[in-house]
User: Fold these one by one.
Assistant:
Number 1:
Amino acid sequence: DIAMTQSPSSLSASVGDRVTITCRASQNINNHLNWYQQKPGKAPKLLIRVATNLQSGVPSRFSGSGFGTTFTLTISTLQPEDFAYYYCQQTYGKPLNFGGGTNLEIK
Amino acid sequence: QVQLVESGGGVVQPGKSLRLSCVASGFTFSDYAMHWVRQAPGKGLEWVAFLSYDGSAEYYPHSMNGRFTISRDNSKNTLHLQMNGLRPEDTAIYYCARDVLQYTDGPTAGCFEYWGQGTLVTVSS
């Protein structure tokens, strides 16, 4: 199985900050890496697919990068609505594992 | 717009069975692969099952231990998850999700583009 490790697990930041979340795969997954945002009591929402492709309707302050084993999700200028949990997911091999999540909190 | 509405959750005793349903609308259901994903209380996301657009291919993580079966009725735009031999550790919100890929017969290379609101399954005596 491909293990996905996210860091940090928790992050405190302020509105206007630039933040980066990292996701590492235990083996090469090419660009088969997706990012999801989840707010309390809500279903996850797809933000970025295949490492860099912004999902339709997602603000351009979100961006993704990486290939192989190391990937990043960057939010360029944090907005109040961005405070949430973020999960990476690999779809290179079965099972389709998610990272453990990053809790982005307001400082 | 795409809508996925799950139902069938509830409180069930260990060892019993439960069948979840997910009714889809706003897209051609028979064109897309579907998944079930679960989230235990306060925990992360776990992929549970995949079913191809035509129902011909299904995949599960080994951790489901053969207790779960995914199925679909394309004539009724409905996805199901039959869960047998339920355990307390199966307690979770269960989400159905639509893959981004059309006509795919495997779970890899896609992503979960749309999600339902989830249905809570509680396994407790």
Number 2:
Amino acid sequence: KQEVTQIPAALSVPEGENLVLNCSFTDSAIYNLQWFRQDPGKGLTSLLLIQSSQREQTSGRLNASLDKSSGRSTLYIAASQPGDSATYLCAVRLPSDSWGKFQFGAGTQVVVTP
Amino acid sequence: SQTIHQWPATLVQPVGSPLSLECTVEGTSNPNLYWYRQAAGRGLQLLFYSVGIGQISSEVPQNLSASRPQDRQFILSSKKLLLSDSGFYLCACHGTLHTEAFFGQGTRLTVV
């Protein structure tokens, strides 16, 4: 069974520092991996999608890498801002099931202090 | 891109009352649709998924049911709510397995 882990569970950094968020998964057989952001009381906002054949994806200050063989993905957020404060979740799409279900991590809660 | 509408945003219901949460999708056709529940401080739990009209699969046995009467409409229901049904319910969709998944803004359900 696929297990997805995000460590640390919470992170606090001063504004301007780079953020590094980790996601690990136990089974390397995945379709893709998606990073989401969730603000308190809100739904999930898609940040980046990395296909299993890709090594990284970039969007603005965000960069996500994927190492399938070691079961790891890392989300980098450059020059953090207070507006980056949120919970970040990663999810892997399972290939063994054609319905495209996701397995989510529990998330990393990020606070960026001014 | 796809847009997912969920309503209501918040709901307070007494134990034993019925429930109906609705999700509609714009910007795509024949999407895969999902209902998730997020309990406080915990991850997302998949409740139901649907690959087409009238096709529903359940992930966990529970007090809830789902229906898909139209291609872009997904409904979560209960005949009698339990206290344990409280939580944050999210509807999600994606087109193919290689495309992004999108989520609605969620419904906060409190059963009292």
